[in-house]
């Protein structure tokens, strides 16, 4: 009886947005009289930070600091339609809608600034800190604060914009399955190292090395929180979680966090996270959806590592100590009889 | 976390001010100091509480429902049954033309899973609602139940749901979604080895910190405001409008701050009945799942059974992949027909295989309806695919990572569902994994690119 070490790898891809498209989202952007920007949505922040990312997309597009952008969501009386926050669609679908709305608002803002500076709007640019200037002549400038005031009280212009993003619906061809399920895919490759106690069947995840390709990390710290959280969920799925431990037997389902098993802080592996960016052609600043894919590759990587450690295949999730021990016993029995 | 910018460096825009910056989240101080308002933090004068009477049986006919004792219980304001629900049989995806309507808001003639909602009790306290719910008398005729997907597909199996004869979802392609690419028989005929393996999973709970729920207030003008933690505001509004036969402009959904979803708050379950209760009582109504309801009543990730049959050459090329996937929807569709179809679009994984045959089935059994969860339709597929890849590599005596390089999809490759690959990056992820994990592979694999094939 011994602690046995093993290593496994898995590689995956994952589609962004609702399968087969047809999942629209809208955004409205307007400025206040003093050049702050409001983004109206009906999109839901599940705790992953959707509002922050939308603020950064709006700010980048208009050319202001993110602090000047406020996200107003999710109220169906004031926010335009959004399909919802699921299917790794938020950053990509809603982000594209916000970007389009912000581009329209920016154009009006530049036109007002052009009137104030008596130049052409196409000759203007933003500096990202709250000012608009003539390209190549930074001394000829006006603040966005003054531009918004002028728009409201002098020029009678609404600095605002509408955004709508829709990947058209695809219908699978019945006999061949020809279809367009998604426009862009995120990727990952994970190497997991485990120790398996062949006496108890217990698995210790020593480390996971996660490489994720995300399109573009719009806010790297928030990408990290999602990727690391996803990695832990993958470990939890692989080794612990189910509402029906003896499926398809319907008994013994957990009803609280004492009975429904998940790893605690002490069970989590040393986690290394590497990000690669291959910007999506149709993503806002290249972003893809990464919310779901980051939890998938750990499961097979751990299954493969467990096989590498003790030489038994557990082809049913979750890979519990009970299943490992039963497989080890069956293997030992085969050796004796074989 | 590190960003390795040397990959695809020429495709990245690097003159940005706000994008790519780790700005602190504006909602974070509120979250970590307990100041953030979630839906359940709201209180209203005269707030009432809704509790559900649920089926204790996996499958049973309802002979009679007697609510008289419950109605007399102190604090009870109203008891609701199926006849109170204007459009009682619904399905969520009818909004995108995926029918048929197959699920009751409150069961009338039959229950098809243990935990199915039958009677709703509204009372002035949670305790009164709970006590009154225990006084509802329902006479059941217990029916045989089926829990195993392959048993459910047999001709003599109990019928789980009258809207799905045969216990499977009827796609326009028949009893399953199909993908056909190349010549699967020719692929197996040329293969040096064939490996067929079966993979299983069990249902998994989304387990958000905040359980599913909502609070509804009558606004006094025949409009209702619903504070909800749904993941999809208009999905909820539009489905509620159908179920309650109430025009959309009478409904006002407020949400957007949620304590975790993971797909578990995409179903439209609590809002319609809570809004109906608010309408019939003219009182604010709170309907919040207990942890037990979240664990065993709310939709989990579906269990799946996946059979993979692969043909592989001694040089590592995958030449045939046949997939038969079964998704356990439980008693009602919710989002499962979509999930099974998403699986069909995902196979054969991120690999270029010339001959592919995919059948995915959505099967009904007498258990809690499954629905969306993080990785919907794909998570379990990836478990099966990537364990199978490991087995195939070992079968032909090849390094498992190198085996994946040989088969990895690249830009321009045609996928089984007949779309050209664009923006692939699997090879680069594997190259970086090789480096970071010190898992060496032959130099020719480190020289590969997702952007095209070597001359």
Automatic annotation (TrEMBL), chain A:
InterPro entries: AldOxase/xan_DH_MoCoBD2, AldOxase/xan_DH_Mopterin-bd_sf, N-heterocyclic_Hydroxylase. Residues 4-267 form the Aldehyde oxidase/xanthine dehydrogenase second molybdopterin binding domain. It comes from the Bacteria. GO terms for molecular function: oxidoreductase activity. Pfam families: MoCoBD_2. PANTHER family: ALDEHYDE DEHYDROGENASE (PTHR47495:SF2). This is Molybdopterin-binding aldehyde dehydrogenase-like protein.
TrEMBL record, chain B:
Transmembrane segments: none annotated. Residues 1-28 have a biased composition (Basic and acidic residues). Pfam families: Ald_Xan_dh_C, MoCoBD_1. Keywords: Molybdenum, Oxidoreductase. Residues 1-30 are annotated as: Disordered. It comes from the Bacteria. Residues 33-144 form the Aldehyde oxidase/xanthine dehydrogenase a/b hammerhead domain. GO terms for molecular function: iron ion binding; oxidoreductase activity. InterPro entries: Ald_Oxase/Xan_DH_a/b, Ald_Oxase/Xan_DH_a/b_sf, Ald_Oxase/xanthine_DH-like, AldOxase/xan_DH_MoCoBD1, AldOxase/xan_DH_Mopterin-bd_sf. This is Aldehyde oxidase/xanthine dehydrogenase-like protein. It comes from Hoeflea marina.
